[in-house]
Amino acid sequence: MYHLSSSVVLGWSLGSNDAANVFGTAVASRMIRYRTAIILAALFIMIGAMVQGFGGIRTLGGLTEQTSRSATIVALMAGITVMLMTALKLPVSTSQAVVGAILGVGLAVAPQQVQWSRLVKVVTCWVGTPIGSAIIAAVLYPLLGRLLDRMRINFVSRSILLKSVLLISGCYGAYALGANSAGNVVGMFHGTGVLEGFANAEALLALIGGASIAMGVLTYSRNVMFTVGSRLVQLGAFSAWIAVLSMAVTVHVYAFIGVPVSTSQAMVGAVLGIGLVKGSRTINRKTLVRIVLGWLATPAIAGAASYAVASLSSRL
Amino acid sequence: MFFWKKERQIERVIEDYLKRTESCLCSFGEACELYFRDGLSGKFESLVNMTHEHERQADDLRRDIEQMMYDKALIPESRGDILGMLEAIDLIPNRCESILFQVLTQSMSVPREFVSQFRELIRINMEAFRLLCTAMRNLFGKVDLVIKDASRVTEIEGQSDVIERLLIKAIFDSGMDKADMILLKELVLEIGGISDRSENASDRLRNIAVKRQS
Asked: Fewer CB within 10 A of the end CB, N or C, for chain A?
């Protein structure tokens, strides 16, 4: 079971980074207290992982045949890649690092067992994440905007309403994050027998995945939340709500499909969609280049590192 | 709702602030009336002090509201709107206080023939402020009425401008001492400043209301 410690570190790192996409705006603009936000986020991440996290766990577990040792290499190399790229301030997504690492280990250990069709499905979902989120935001923005205007509510009620829906959407986003990302964290251990002897190993994996992400949110998310949130605050409360909601819906859809995707990229897509509807430029070309770079560089680095370590380890 | 008690609280404190500024305007009106009737007197001085006290209390309430805004009440864009509005409204009780101090410290005297026009000027400027307060209250109630109220303030400010011009002309046609003429002209412009500032504040209100409706 100690093999799972590498997954716990990976989940902790994911939680500390991704909570910003869920509650960043509300916290940075001081609409919701940081403490309230992290408690709610942790709770809903756990619920999401336990209720709907299995799809992602099975998908990542089924990309290639894993042993507990190879799965440890995957989690470790993905974690190191995420930390390294974060330190170098390069764009990074845990989902993409994990998939890259799984592929690297798969190619090194048993290339014939790599499920290329599943990989194509995963990569298609990566590309579909910001695009889907942008479309959802572009549809929701005018629709809910019109609905809000029709309500003709006063200043304070509007404020209360927007704060409430931002809070609810944040909880929903946290649920979707848990449901979607549990697979990233522990999916590589699915089918490895690492939890042999436990009555419901899959549920235990989901619990460990959710708990480690929640731990990252509870212990180390403050700085990222304020940094990412401050950028989104400039959008205004209504747009921020649409962005969080669109991100949550997108990530939740992928949780149903069973493919872990990046919440950050879903958020960028949502902000882009709002910008398209408003006729303003909310995302610059540099950000888009960084996303594409993230798609290519992250899995490539994680894949190369895990390939090297797995090849070395198989010779020992 | 239990979660949003700060929001409800802010509505109440803004109402307290508006009531306090209205009290300030009321004691200003009473002080002016007493001055036109009896000239400078001990009672006038106590009304000046009362105006000053209301203005000070309104300032304290404004600081409380600012503190609540920095303490997470309302959504960010509304915070800026409310703080800007309060700053704009706050200039009006300040102006009332400064007019009374001007009369008191300069021992001014308004000749009998101008008293009725001064009374009308003060009445119309106070009316502009009252309408501004109504518009501000409607921002928290019937937002649709804010634009109508704001237009009415603009209209009254126009009427005040006309009275100011006529009064200044009458003062300079009166053959008074030049220094007295200049002092009276300044007093007219200071009083007219109440409706000018009310109009500025109501323009801000109008923008906030339009933003909410678009």
From this structure: C
b/e burial code for range A207-228 (CB count within 10 A of at least 16 → b): bbbbbbbbbbbbebbbebbeeb
Record: contact B76-A237, CB cut-off 8 A? yes
User: Are residues A155 and B10, on separate chains, in Cβ contact within 8 Å?
Assistant: no
C-alpha to C-alpha distance for A21 and A27, rounded to whole angstroms: 11
pLDDT at res. A38: 96
Radius of gyration of chain A (CA): 19
Q: Chain A interface residues facing chain B, Cβ-Cβ under 8 Å?
A: 29-33, 149, 152-156, 158-160, 162-164, 167, 233, 236-237
Q: Domain segments of chain A: what residues?
A: 2-315
CA distance B33 to chain A (A): 37
B5 touches chain A (CB under 8 A): no
The whole domain housing B21 covers 2-213
- What own/partner pairs with CB < 8 Å and gap ≥ 24 does B68-71 have? B68/B6, B68/B9, B68/B10, B68/B13, B69/B10, B70/A30, B71/A30, B71/B6
Closest CA to B90 of B149, B156, B14: B14
From A152, A163, A164, residue closest to B144, measured CB to CB: A152
Tell me what pLDDT residue A196 has: 79
Q: Who has greater pLDDT, A286 or B55?
A: B55
CA distance B87 to chain A (A): 18
Going from the first residue of chain A to its last (316 residues), give the mean pLDDT of each consecutive group of 10, the final group possibly shorter.
86 90 87 93 97 92 83 92 78 86 91 87 91 96 92 84 94 96 92 81 93 95 84 82 96 93 90 87 73 81 94 84
Task: Say yes or no for a CB contact (<8 Å) between A156 and B142.
Answer: no
B214 close to A (CB below 8 A): yes
d(CA A66, CA A171): 34
Residue B15, chain A, CB below 8 Å: the answer is no
What chain A residue is nearest to B14 in terms of C-alpha separation? A156
Please tell me which of the candidates A31, A162, A167 has its beta carbon nearest to residue B72. Answer: A31
CATH number at residue B59: 1.20.58.220
Is residue B170 scored above 90 in pLDDT?
A: yes
Indicate the number of domains in chain B. Answer: 1
Is residue B122 a contact partner of residue B192, using CB atoms and an 8 Å limit?
Answer: no
pLDDT in tens, A2-55: 778 999 999 998 998 889 889 998 888 888 889 999 999 999 999 999 999 999
| Out of B3, B77, B141, closest to residue A154 by CB | B141
Contacts of B72 in chain A (CB under 8 A): 30-33
Do A185 and A60 contact (CB within 8 A), yes or no? no
